[in-house]
Structures are given as C-alpha cells and as structure tokens.
Amino acid sequence: MNGRLPITPALLLTANYTYTDSVRKGGGEPAFDGSSLDGTPLDKTPRHMANVRLDWQATEQIAAYVLGYYSGKQTFSGFRNGALNTRTREGSTTFDVGINFTINENFALRAAVLNVTDKIVPVDDRGRFDGLDGNWMLDEGRRFWGTATISF
C-alpha cells in the first residue's frame, strides 16, 4: 500500500507499507537439530516493512528530503545459518536526510547522510552449540554519499 500527500506546494509526504505473510509449507527441510522448519516464515522475509519520506522543494534550485525506513523481524532457517535451529533478526528503523542543489540545467550536486542515527543490529557471534540464535547480517552504519552530475 502506498500514498502521497501534497501538504503544501513545497512539501510532499509519501509513504509505503508492505505486509508479507509467508510460511514454509512442506518440503521437509530440517533445521540442524533435526526439527522441521515447516510453519516458519520464509528466510529473511520481514512481515512488516514501511517507509515515510518528506520532500521539501525549498527553491527552484534546492530540494531536501528526510526518509524513515522500517524493516520488521526476520528469521533465517536451515543448515546454512550456523545455528541449531532458526535465527532471528530484530526489526530496525533507520533515517536518511539529503539535499539536491541544481546549479543550472547542466550541473547538479547531491549529498545525503544515510542511517543518520547509526542504527546497527548487533550480530550474534556465539557458536552453534553456545546458543547461537540471533542476527546474522552486518548492517551498514552511518555513511555519507555525494555526487556531481554534469550533462551536456
């Protein structure tokens, strides 16, 4: 589901929400401990995902945005995950901000700070037989992005 709402001529709010109801049905894939994975969600598929973005056209040449992104809890199953059974990654929310500056019709500058709050879900690095059941995925922390575009 998505939507857009012009708040003023200079402000635009857009949002998107995705609900995914996934479940393993049959197939007989076991976890490392031999238990059945039937009934567990599909690997790395969050049930809930959402984003909200506010765009601001400050002037004809300057535009900025702020973006919030949520990804819900995910599971990782099967032999290849390094655990005895499924692993769970908690949901997380990140925020980005950016600005676009159009110098003229042939030259534009863009910059952004991604994951402004430096949100990182800790990786569970315990061993298979030491209770490993948590996050497996490395997150990108706060980072800076910039570009210059020249067209002719």
UniProtKB/TrEMBL annotation:
Organism superkingdom: Bacteria
Q: What is the protein name given in its UniProt record? A: TonB-dependent receptor-like beta-barrel domain-containing protein
Which source organism does the UniProt entry give? Sphingobium yanoikuyae ATCC 51230
Task: Give the subcellular location.
Answer: Cell outer membrane
Q: Name one GO biological process term.
A: siderophore transmembrane transport
Q: Where is the TonB-dependent receptor-like beta-barrel domain?
A: 12-116
Question: Does this entry carry the keyword Transport?
Answer: yes
Question: What are the entry keywords?
Answer: Cell outer membrane, Membrane, Signal, TonB box, Transmembrane, Transmembrane beta strand, Transport
Name one cellular component (GO) term.
cell outer membrane
Q: How does it sit in the membrane?
A: Multi-pass membrane protein
Q: Which residues cross the membrane?
A: none
UniProt GO molecular function: siderophore uptake transmembrane transporter activity
Under the heading SUPFAM superfamilies, the entry gives: Porins
